[in-house]
């Protein structure tokens, strides 16, 4: 069933269809609809990125030690909270990876919340988006593990505590790591898709009051899922870079 085209997506398809078709041709992917190559979830990710850029462009020149504004207070709270979790989960080197943890948290959070804005959709309720973020997490923690322990030192983690257990442990560890991709993707996708559908159903049945309750629940789930995704990223990275592990 073809998806409903949002007004933002319509603008992208009208003025930037050539760009999308060119990128698809570089990747060797034929466009199903050359006149409408942009999908809603892709455009919504650009909207999220634009919101982040605009917010920090406004915040940057207003940063002040003596007289911090309300927006600065909000982001200091977010940064302090994520930093505290990183210190607790990853350890004393957790702050080295704050750029990843904070970016994932903000991107997932804004992507989740975008669904409550009229005429917009949450990009995270489309499976390719959570999968893409999960692939970033998967690639990053494996890369950092190789960097921290060395390539062969990191691979030893897959062999278990004793060499004799390696034939058994290696397949188990490989399946476990690949399963993390599935876990991260399905958890975020399923929660956001279900929340969006429930809210839409109640808006169509009871247009007043009741949908507000579910929208409030949607906001809560949005924060919770963003935190869980960032927390799991910390846990996976902590296991990858830990010398004791």
Brief write-up:
The protein is 71% helix and 0% strand. The chain is mainly α and 245 residues long.
In percent terms, what proportion of residues is strand? under 5%
The parts where pLDDT drops under 50 for at least 5 residues are: none
Radius of gyration from CA coordinates? 21 Å
| Tally of DSSP helical segments | 9
Whole-number count of domains = 2
Number of strands: 0
In whole angstroms, the N-to-C terminal distance is 48 Å
Level of helix content? over 70%
Q: What class, by secondary structure content?
A: mainly alpha
Quaternary organisation of the protein chains: single chain
Q: What's the order of the H and E elements? A: HHHHHHHHH
Instruction: Please describe the biggest sheet, giving its number of strands, its sense, and whether it closes into a barrel.
Output: none
**Structural shape:** globular
Return the average pLDDT rounded to an integer: 88
Please tell me about this protein's structure.
The chain is an all-alpha fold and about 240 residues long. It has two domains: about 1-40, no CATH class; about 45-240. About 70% of the residues lie in helices and about 0% in strands. The protein has nine helices and no strands. The protein has helices at about 5-15, 15-25, 40-60, 70-90, 100-115, 130-150, 150-155, 165-205, 210-240. The longest helix has about 40 residues, at about 165-205. The radius of gyration is 21 Å and the shape is globular. The protein starts with 6 loop residues before the first helix and ends with a helix. The mean pLDDT is about 90.
């Amino acid at each position: 069933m073809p998806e409903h085209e949002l007004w933002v997506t319509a603008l992208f398809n009208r003025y930037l269809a050539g760009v999308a078709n060119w990128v698809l041709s570089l990747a060797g992917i034929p466009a199903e609809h050359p006149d409408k190559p942009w999908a809603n979830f892709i455009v919504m990710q650009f909207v999220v990125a634009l919101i982040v850029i605009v917010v920090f462009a406004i915040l940057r020149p207003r940063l002040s030690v003596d007289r911090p504004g309300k927006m600065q207070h909000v982001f200091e709270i977010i940064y302090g909270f994520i930093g505290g979790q990183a210190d607790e989960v990853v350890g004393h080197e957790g702050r080295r990876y704050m750029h990843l943890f904070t970016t994932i948290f903000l991107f997932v959070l804004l992507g989740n919340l975008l669904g409550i804005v009229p005429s917009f959709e949450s990009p995270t309720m489309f499976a390719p988006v959570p999968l893409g973020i999960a692939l970033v997490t998967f690639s990053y923690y494996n890369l950092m593990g190789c960097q921290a322990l060395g390539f062969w030192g990191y691979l030893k983690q897959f062999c278990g505590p004793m060499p004799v257990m390696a034939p058994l442990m290696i397949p188990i560890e490989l399946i476990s790591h690949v399963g993390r991709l599935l876990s991260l993707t399905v958890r975020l996708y399923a929660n956001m898709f279900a929340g969006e559908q429930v809210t839409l159903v109640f808006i169509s049945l009871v247009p007043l009051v009741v949908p507000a309750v579910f929208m409030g629940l949607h906001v809560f789930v949005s924060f919770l899922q963003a935190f869980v995704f960032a927390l799991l990223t910390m846990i996976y990275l902590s296991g990858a870079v830990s010398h004791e592990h």
